[in-house]
Specification:
- With 222 residues, this protein is mainly beta.
- It is built from 1 helix and 10 strands.
- The protein has one helix spanning 3-24; strands at 33-35, 40-49, 61-73, 78-98, 103-124, 129-131, 134-148, 161-174, 179-193, 206-221.
- It has an 8-stranded antiparallel barrel. A two-stranded antiparallel ribbon has the order 1-6.
- The termini are far apart.
- The relative contact order is 0.19.
Length: 222
């Protein structure tokens, strides 16, 4: 092999090695990806629950939430969460002013506390790793809302107990393997059932109400 051919082989080998290194990606110490080694977490959450409460405003809305959740990771991609929340919200009440003319009057808003318990199935978009300390996810949530201290309402409307569905987008911020932050944007769906007296204001017997729910939390992983 002459000298020119030897140089050509050397250049081709260097290019091949460079291409292979580029395909592998970053060196481990410089990689933006980090393993998430802890599989369970306890998190304290706080948030804001918005919305309008439906066309008459009788559904709970507009207020702060405080809760806690427990998460367990079943694989790198999937995990489940269980949470309980106290929501200090408000709503309107509808008063029947006359039994003969069926005159309705909307009053409020008045305080309305709601207890919320839910289960979430979470898809971790970066698997068992974080990217630049971020671990984004999508989750589907199903829960039960229980109205507490319901204000007097003689129109026949009662919020009662509601099943709710909540698609969720969020991310965890992995501060250390033991400490993480959580930020979520939720769209809360529940259906209000209206009494016959509401027919003039809303022809349907019920209404699906969508409320935005923004949450933040501080968690301990173990």
């Amino acid at each position: 092999m002459n000298r020119r051919r030897a140089w050509l082989v050397a250049v081709l080998v260097a290019l091949a090695v460079g291409a292979a290194e580029a395909q592998v990606g970053h060196e481990p110490r410089n990689s933006p990806y980090r393993d998430i080694t802890k599989g369970m977490a306890l998190t304290v959450t706080t948030g804001y629950f918005g919305g309008s409460g439906g066309s008459l405003g009788v559904g709970p809305h507009n207020g702060t939430t405080l809760g806690g959740r427990f998460d367990i990771r079943l694989s790198n991609t999937f995990q489940f969460g269980f949470s309980g929340t106290v929501a200090d919200l408000e709503r309107n009440i509808v008063i029947l002013e006359s039994d003969t003319t069926l005159t309705l009057r909307t009053l409020g808003p008045v305080p309305q506390q709601v207890l919320m318990f839910d289960v979430s199935a979470q898809l971790n978009l970066t698997g068992g790793k974080s990217w630049n300390r971020l671990a984004p996810y999508f989750a589907g949530v199903i829960g039960l809302a229980i109205a507490e201290n319901t204000p007097a309402d003689n129109s026949g409307f009662s919020f009662g107990n509601k099943i709710y569905l909540t698609p969720t987008l969020g991310t965890r911020v992995i501060i250390t393997q033991a400490i993480q932050l959580r930020f979520e944007a939720r769209a809360n769906f529940w259906k209000l059932s209206y009494p016959p007296l509401f027919q003039a204001a809303n022809p349907s017997t019920g209404q699906w109400v969508i409320s935005p729910w923004f949450m933040a939390g501080l968690g301990i992983a173990f």
